[in-house]
């Protein structure tokens, strides 16, 4: 076993240096993501007892992201990609602090905090996507995303478990005088320290800024338009995955400790599967991994809709934890291969495609959340959280044949 681990470490060290530094940065920041994606929504639900407030938060987050992608393109002409990447990570810690250290929060504070988080995500993801393209090649991207999502899954186990334990101590043993808000504030301090550490690590790399001349285009190749549709379908699910699980858990199951336990237990098998897939799978296996992820999501959504109980929610959250990394390990290499191919074909900068892709995601996120809002407003919240997920799951199945077509058309890329 020890020799196997040593062999994996040697394999990691054989990767390009900048790729390893980017991975190490993202591994540290991975400790922050479960808090941002799950417990911020739970905090809003606890404070305002309103799913509308959670939706408002996510809409402002999603609105801030594409705007910042464009802004980041202009800033890259004068500032270091490492500095802007660091700024994104640190801003996420500031955003959480703005919300959780206020004595009382209203919809206004929720919206401001969400917009600030969206800006931080915009700086983080736009620079991360560019650096991932620049530091990897098609033949090592399965490994890159397999290892990255492996650590995201591990932190998805460890972080919720630790936070859940703190909530148990608070409620059962009067830790922090039984004040759950104090737990959130301790978490916020930890988040801020981790964002500073990850910012320090990224500066060890020798990354070069992209050449950014024109950022926004309105006419694209047919292949890119297909990828934008695929991005929109992804965005529909993405909007739900950072919003609905916390609402489901707190409405149908229990409190934050339950949320933590479900996240942790369902991630154990996923972490092992992801690392193995990333290590041994080849580019031709991506469509199978991609399809498996969407089938698992649909099964979880259908189970939740049919049962509409605490058990159904637990099944869905477990399927969601399996789906998300399986999808990412296949989707991101597909996206990058298309960007590489079209950037060479059209002589446009890779960054302009990264920016445009984000707008495709935004359209999907907006449509997905709009579906929830319409069902909530015109029928009921109960109906929305019961049936909207299965509708999304059915629509997502269209992604499988579309992804297969995109993979086939992008095989013309020069070796």
Automatic annotation (TrEMBL):
Pfam family, one: MFS_1
Keyword Nucleotide-binding belongs to the record: no
Record has Transmembrane as a keyword: yes
SUPFAM superfamilies cross-referenced by the UniProt entry: MFS general substrate transporter
Alphabetized InterPro entries for the sequence: MFS, MFS_trans_sf, Sugar_transport-like
Transmembrane segments: 21-43, 55-76, 83-101, 107-124, 145-170, 182-202, 223-250, 262-280, 292-323, 359-379, 385-407
Top-rank taxon: Bacteria
Keyword entries, A-Z: Membrane, Transmembrane, Transmembrane helix
Entry protein name: MFS transporter
Origin species: Reichenbachiella carrageenanivorans
């Amino acid at each position: 076993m020890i020799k196997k681990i040593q062999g994996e470490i040697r394999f990691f060290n054989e990767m390009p240096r900048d790729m390893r530094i980017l991975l190490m940065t993202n591994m540290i920041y991975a400790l922050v993501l479960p808090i941002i994606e799950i417990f911020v929504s739970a905090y809003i639900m606890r404070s305002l007892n309103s799913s509308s407030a959670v939706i408002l938060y996510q809409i402002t987050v999603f609105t801030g992201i594409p705007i910042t992608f464009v802004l980041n393109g202009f800033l890259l002409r004068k500032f270091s990609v490492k500095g802007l990447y660091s700024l994104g990570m640190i801003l996420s810690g500031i955003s959480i602090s703005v919300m959780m250290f206020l004595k009382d929060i209203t919809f206004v504070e929720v919206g401001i905090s969400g917009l600030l988080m969206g800006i931080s995500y915009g700086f983080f993801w736009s620079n991360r996507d560019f650096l991932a393209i620049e530091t990897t090649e098609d033949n090592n991207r399965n490994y890159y995303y397999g290892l990255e999502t492996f650590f995201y899954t591990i932190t998805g186990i460890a972080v919720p478990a630790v936070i859940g334990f703190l909530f148990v101590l608070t409620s059962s043993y009067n830790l922090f005088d039984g004040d759950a808000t104090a737990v959130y504030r301790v978490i916020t301090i930890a988040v801020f320290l981790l964002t500073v550490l990850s910012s320090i690590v990224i500066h060890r790399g020798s990354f070069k800024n992209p050449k950014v001349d024109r950022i926004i285009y309105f006419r694209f190749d047919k292949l890119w338009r297909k990828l934008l549709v695929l991005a929109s379908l992804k965005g529909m699910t993405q909007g739900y995955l950072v919003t609905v699980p916390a609402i489901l858990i707190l409405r149908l199951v229990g409190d934050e400790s339950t949320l933590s336990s479900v996240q942790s237990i369902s991630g154990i098998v996923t972490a092992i599967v992801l690392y193995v897939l990333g290590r041994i799978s080849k580019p031709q296996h991506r469509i199978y991994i991609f399809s498996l992820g969407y089938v698992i999501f649909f099964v979880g959504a259908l189970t939740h809709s049919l049962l509409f109980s605490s058990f159904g929610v637990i099944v869905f959250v477990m399927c969601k934890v399996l789906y998300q990394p399986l999808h990412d390990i296949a989707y991101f290499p597909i996206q990058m291969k298309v960007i590489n191919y079209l950037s060479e074909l059209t002589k446009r900068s890779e960054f302009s495609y990264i920016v445009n892709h984000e707008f495709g995601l935004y359209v999907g996120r907006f449509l997905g959340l709009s579906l929830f809002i319409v069902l909530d407003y015109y029928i009921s919240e109960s109906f929305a959280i019961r049936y909207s997920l299965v509708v999304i799951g059915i629509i997502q199945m269209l992604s499988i044949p579309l992804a297969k077509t995109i993979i086939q058309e992008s095989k013309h890329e020069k070796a």
